[in-house]
Amino acid sequence: MKTNWFICRSTSLLISGLLMSYILSSQAPFINIIPKPVNLITKKNSFIYDHNTVMLYDSNIPGIVPIADIIVNQLSITKVNTPARKNYISLSIDKKIVNPEGYKMDVNRNFIRITAKTTAGLFYGTQSLIQLINFNTRENKIPALEISDSPAFPYRGMHLDVSRHFAPVDFVKKYIDLMSKYKFNKFHWHLTDDQGWRIEIKKYPRLTEIGAYRDSTLAGRYSEIPRKFDKTRHGGFYTQEEIKDIIDYAGERFVEIIPEIEMPGHCMAALAAYPEYACTTSPVSVWPIWGVSEDIFCPTEETFTFLTDILSEVADLFPGKYIHIGGDEVPKKRWKESSFCQELIKKENLKDEHELQSWFIKRIEKFVNSKGKTIIGWDEILEGGLAPNAVVMSWRGEAGGIEAAKQKHNVIMTPGSYCYFDHYQSLDPGEPVAIGGYTSLEKVFSYKPIPEELLKSQSKYILGAQANLWSEYFTTTKQVEYMAYPRAIALSEVLWTNSAKRDFSNFIKRIIPHQRYLKQKGLNISDHLINLEHKTINTGSKVLFTINAPAGIDTRIFYTKNGAIPDPEALVYRDSIVITNDSKIKYQAYFNDTPLYPVYNADFKMHMGAGKKIELKNKPAEQYAKGGNEVILNGIMASTDRYSDKEWLGFLDTDFEGTIDLETPDYIDQVKMRFYNYNHVGIFTPREIEIYGSKDKADFKMIGGMKLANFRDSNILDANIRIFDKKRYRYVRVIVKNSEFAKEYQKNQVQKYNWLFIGEIVIE
Predict the structure, then answer these.
(1) Is 193 a catalytic residue?
(2) Which of 143, 369, 582, 734 is the S-S candidate for 29 at Cβ 3.0 to 4.6 Å?
(3) Is 266 annotated as catalytic?
(4) 309 given a catalytic annotation
């Protein structure tokens, strides 16, 4: 077949976006491509584009025209029919390249050539070229270089939950477009849950007529007591025509869409529309709150007909390889109470309800496989036995993924501590409300998807990883953007670039122009490129306030002690800040002359116990003692967010007993204590507080106390214990007795924890 070549001549130098140069020298320009190419060699000279520049590609290659149009649109190029020998950009296929998503790029003074094994590789090479144009041009010069690049993992995913809060079609496209610019190739679309059903199923219209809308939504944090609701109708769904349009849009960007249809749990929206498929006759509504509902699908023949009908339409609609069927957080109470389920367990010779869930998943898998698809399930599908061909998505840490890989099942890693982007990304108290947790940009960047526990023969089952964005607290699409970026950019490098070639300080240098460019384009990207963390050290007479920045980042930190916003004229942080009285510390990092947000703060209220040492009889839980035992005597009051605030100490199933050395005897008027309260996850306020005093640490006398009733009015309890013995004491012993209410509360709860969270102990 004769090859038809299209030649494109530049008619304009209108370059959309920010043209920035981070050139360190003419011989070694600093290249701002993200994710970082696997192999990159810089050379002398540059490619200069002007009105004579032309572009060359083979129009017979399927799918190449939209890829070429990316450059056409970027440079405002017009097509002509004149061949070129120099000053051109070319796209071509090279079957010798091994990785199907890999590409090569050669830039010199005469041309830019991008070659790849497939059009997917050409697309990724083009994305790298666009970044070079946006961030590495100087006077229309693109630095000469050679790139040989390919991804470390075949699965590079981003997830979006549209069930809790609906996202319009235009935003879903924007989300996919942003993904593709950073070489993600899988979009996990969470379409159904307790709070909403978002996909049109023609055979069951009530799924969207009823299941797509709820009459009210929880306002504020799930943990806030008492709970409040906005009493506003919320909802929406995607028609099948809209979904087809989104699929086509994603396909042009080499993004495969993976739909998720939750089962057997997280299905209240479906049961609200079709209650006959539940295990109870009690009315079910689309859920207005978050968390885990006890209502699940009942595994009757009628239910399986209902679900397979739905999956048939889903399989016909989505051309990709995978269908995600959920399988997570499935309470077994309804199945335990169901005579039908108990008879089914006996009939199928199953051990218990966990094996019933496995039986359920295996039956669904068999049907999905018959449609030419593979199921993905959250790691709970391991419980009771893994379905034969299932892919496991490991979210409760990495243990599920490790076990699945050892069983020779493919795995997608998405552990909450690294990949849940609904977590806070900063310790800044001004952050918008999030579900909890703390996952910084640096933490995401540090992730290694292949666990060390796996043998080399087992590690091949790790397909990659993805970030999850659950939308309980994403009430607007702007908030989705804020939580996703820049952390998604960090994850893109984790999944594309070999871990041995990753360097966080180098990444920060490269991401700054990306952040500015995306802001200029209207993206609500977060400013949290690096996170400073402070720590306090009690010396016995004062508090030392220390600030830590990520290692290897060339930053300067400025601070004030009077609450003023710091700038380069403020005090320069060096080793530590001495705190001896009430202070309002504010501090901020600068990279070169660029301020890195946010401005951090720590308010100190000094008291007799601040800066003093404490001996604990029982150790706090390791995960809730990251600030050290003496954070409860550092003068900083613990905030209402136990997840991101290191000022709490957490004790599991044990009382608190601490002895404080005031160093010199003194009169004590009162002791104030702060406690956290969140019964749903097993955190309770104490039943009793006892205060003892001693002059010599040998003989302790009770000098104050308080009994507490069950407390459920709010998340914070501040207790004020008056001291009735007005004598001088050097040592103060505080005993806090754990709740007994926990046992009563937890009778019907899945979680049986009895946590005691203690904030500052204020001695006055």
Answers:
(1) yes
(2) 143
(3) yes
(4) no
